[in-house]
Amino acid sequence: MGDGGAVISARGLVKRFDDFTAVDGIDVEIAAGESFGFLGPNGAGKSSTMRMIGCVSPPSGGDLRIFGLDPVRDGVRIRSRLGVCPQDDSLDHELTAMQNITTYARYFGVSRAHARKRCAELLDWVQLGERARSRVGDLSGGMRRRLAVARSLVNDPDCVLLDEPTTGLDPQARHLLWERLFQLKRRGVTLVLTTHYMDEAEQLCDRIVIMDGGRIVAEGSPHNLIKEHVTRDVVELRYAGTPDDAVLATLPGRVEKLGDRALLYADDGDAALAAAHRAGLELTSVFVRRSTLEDVFLRLTGRTLVD
């Protein structure tokens, strides 16, 4: 797809903070109506990229176009068509849920009457209609997160930026938001999100980039990323004692040792498990499962903690 059909197009995009390069020359193209995800460990450059797309942080280099417009020169026009749900919801805790939305609507020139109507629709949409007059400070963390998502839609945006939209939500609230985001996508709204939940990325995203150290290390649909970077099955072997590395090396597929267990990546998990038994490993438990996006993520970015 050429730039003319892209809602967001970046070429060699760079973001520097003094001597630190947070985003190091990435290329991204996001089509209208697409649900697109940025994945990566902390410090990978995801939020810096989202802030540049949201026109609140100017690029340090490269070319960025949103709706075909330059975010440096045309920031106001772009922001009028964007919905933004930041990682920090930045709600006013002294105002009610309704007031948070109607006050935010004024930034987009929405009339008071339309803002009240839109507010009622959005609160019902995230199942907060009965809490419209509750102060935000009295709402649970999950309710506040749903309110932040609702507020981001007050201007009927063409594209919504969601930075870790379901962090802190219980499973019921997460699935509610997933359903609501699917509804937006069916209406043709472009969704761009970051998340640390791999199942969320698999559920919501048509296409994903995985970032590490400010660069893109993989791109594709969740299905294709799994197919390209890991085997069909994973066998989780938990064993007593410490097995001989030479024995593990005889097993089919790739073996990853993790403390008192090992992960065996194989195209046929049952056959790999049978091989583990034949090798004489003293196993305390075994589990054969399909590979997931989390397996891809960990293979490409490693298991080392990043603060």
UniProtKB/TrEMBL annotation:
Residues 8-238 form the ABC transporter domain. Keywords: Antibiotic resistance, ATP-binding, Nucleotide-binding, Transport. It comes from the Bacteria. SMART domains: AAA. InterPro entries: AAA+_ATPase, ABC_transporter-like_ATP-bd, ABC_transporter-like_CS, ABC_transporter_ATP-binding, P-loop_NTPase. GO terms for molecular function: ATP binding. It is a peripheral membrane protein. Pfam families: ABC_tran (PF00005). It is found in: Cell membrane. Belongs to the ABC transporter superfamily. This is ATP-binding cassette domain-containing protein. It comes from Luedemannella flava.
